[in-house]
Amino acid sequence: MIQSVTIGGTINLGNYESLRLDVCADTSEEAIQSLRDCLKRCAMYGSIEQDLINQWSKRVLGDESE
After folding, report:
1. Domain that holds residue 22
2. Whole-prediction pTM value?
3. What is the pLDDT of residues 6-22, one digit of tens each?
4. Which of 9, 18, 25, 27 allows an S-S link to 31, with CB 3.0 to 4.6 Å?
């Protein structure tokens, strides 16, 4: 029986900067949603970073409507 799920990733922001996020939840769906929520908060700070974070999220986690 699965006790918890951890999901995460590293996003290269360019200029030798990267963003690493890991989240832990009871189910994979909750972990993915928590990671999406964290990414949305991180993407609020700059347009270049926002584009890179959104691209990574769509590529790795898929479209939110799926």
Report:
1. 5-61
2. 0.79
3. 999 999 988 888 989 99
4. 25
